[in-house]
């Protein structure tokens, strides 16, 4: 008769949706886990990690992506109900995953599964020619993923003043490293 406890342990690791190992340089997993709940990290491509291991469980990713808040002491945190934990964010807490053209609007599909209209005046190009905008009523920056950028390219152009978005009968100019001012 097979030992069922070993089978359960193996399948539990798989159902948790964690890939192994990708510990950050200079840190080991045990040391990381001793800190409160361990380090939670969101990379520039929108992948979530816990103590250096990628989280792949879809529902966990969705919960984390819609639970990001600004931390009053600076940076970001995950908050679900009364529970919260500080997180490290490599670039932006939100990513534009898709662009859809509906009824004259440019709708952005974000990594938290929400959709919202693009605010063209918030567009800017950052380092490595990455396109950004502000989302969540201007509270957060969002990084365009490559597929979303290519979808938006149908409306982008360049003239003597620089790059622009052709939208709502107007040219919305933006420049490299031109972060919108508050």
Describe this structure in words.
- The protein has 182 residues and is of the alpha+beta class.
- It folds into two domains: 17-89, duf1285 like fold (Roll); 94-174, no CATH class.
- Helix content is 18%, strand content 37%.
- It has four helices and 15 strands.
- It has a six-stranded mixed β-sheet. Strands 9-8-7-12-11-10 form a six-stranded mixed β-sheet.
- A hairpin with a 2-residue loop joins strand 2 and strand 3 (53-54).
List keywords for this structure.
18% helix, 182 residues, 2 domains, disordered N terminus, alpha+beta, duf1285 like fold, single chain
Number of domains: 2
Strand content: 35-45%
Order of helices and strands: HHEEEHEEEEEEEEEHEEE
Principal-axes shape call:
elongated
Largest sheet: 6 strands, mixed
Distance between the termini: 67 Å
How many strands appear in the DSSP assignment?
A: 15
Give Rg in angstroms: 20 Å
Concise synopsis of the structure shown:
The chain is α+β, with helices and mostly antiparallel strands and 182 residues long.
């Amino acid at each position: 008769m097979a030992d069922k406890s070993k089978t359960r342990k193996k399948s539990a690791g798989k159902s948790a949706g964690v890939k192994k190992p990708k510990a950050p340089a200079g840190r080991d997993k045990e040391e990381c886990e001793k800190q409160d709940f361990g380090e939670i990290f969101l990379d520039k491509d929108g992948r979530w990690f816990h103590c250096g291991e990628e989280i792949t469980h879809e529902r966990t990713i969705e919960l984390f992506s819609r639970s990001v808040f600004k931390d009053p002491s600076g940076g970001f945190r995950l908050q679900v109900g009364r529970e919260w934990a500080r997180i490290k964010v490599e670039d932006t807490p939100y990513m534009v995953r898709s662009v859809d053209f509906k009824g004259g609007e440019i709708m952005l599909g974000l990594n938290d599964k929400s959709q919202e209209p693009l605010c063209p005046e918030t567009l800017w190009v950052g380092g490595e020619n990455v396109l950004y905008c502000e989302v969540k009523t201007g509270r957060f920056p969002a990084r365009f993923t490559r597929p979303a950028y290519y979808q938006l390219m149908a409306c982008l152009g360049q003239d003597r003043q620089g790059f622009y978005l052709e939208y709502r009968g107007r040219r919305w100019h933006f420049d490299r490293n031109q972060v919108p001012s508050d």
